[in-house]
Design brief:
There is one protein chain. The chain is an alpha/beta fold and 124 residues long. The chain has a single domain, classed as 2,3-Dihydroxybiphenyl 1,2-Dioxygenase, domain 1 (Roll). It is 18% helix and 40% strand. It is built from two helices and seven strands; from the N terminus they run βαβββαβββ. The protein has a seven-stranded mixed beta sheet with strand order 2-3-1-4-7-6-5. Strand 2 and strand 3 form a beta hairpin. The chain is globular, with a radius of gyration of 14 Å. 17% of the residues are buried. The mean pLDDT is 82.
């Protein structure tokens, strides 16, 4: 049985800090601890789910909302999803978030979804 759970929702934007500031001011949200050393990503943690804003660098996805799922093995789940009709957008990446493996795909209808799993040899 899988230990899959929703762990993050990202809104892609041209200005993550400005959009996050707007949400914070309008909805009285408190920022989550920063994970990056730049202004390409920021956000809030609400009921254990990270609500993030990231700079849009991928025109294939556009300004879509990306659902991120925590999985035990991002490589295996990405492979299974591709065989079931998902399209790989960004191959498994262990550099962007040290200690984790990130994979970005689209479902069969083109909606983006991400997988976050432990880097091989680590556990989340």
């Amino acid at each position: 049985m899988s230990n899959t759970k929703l762990c993050a929702v990202f809104r892609r934007t041209t200005d993550p800090v400005a959009l996050a500031t707007w949400y914070a001011e309008q909805l009285f949200l408190q920022p989550a601890p920063r994970r990056l050393e730049n202004d390409d990503q920021t956000g809030f943690t609400m009921d254990g789910v990270y609500f993030g804003f990231e700079r849009n660098a991928d025109v294939a996805i556009g300004n879509a909302t990306v659902l991120w799922f925590s999985v035990d093995d991002a490589f295996a789940v990405a492979d299974r999803l591709e065989r079931a009709g998902a399209r790989l957008v960004e191959a498994p990446n262990t550099v962007a978030s040290p200690g984790e493996t990130l994979v970005l795909l689209t479902d069969p209808e083109g909606n983006p979804l991400g997988l976050i799993g432990p880097e091989p040899g680590n556990s989340l």
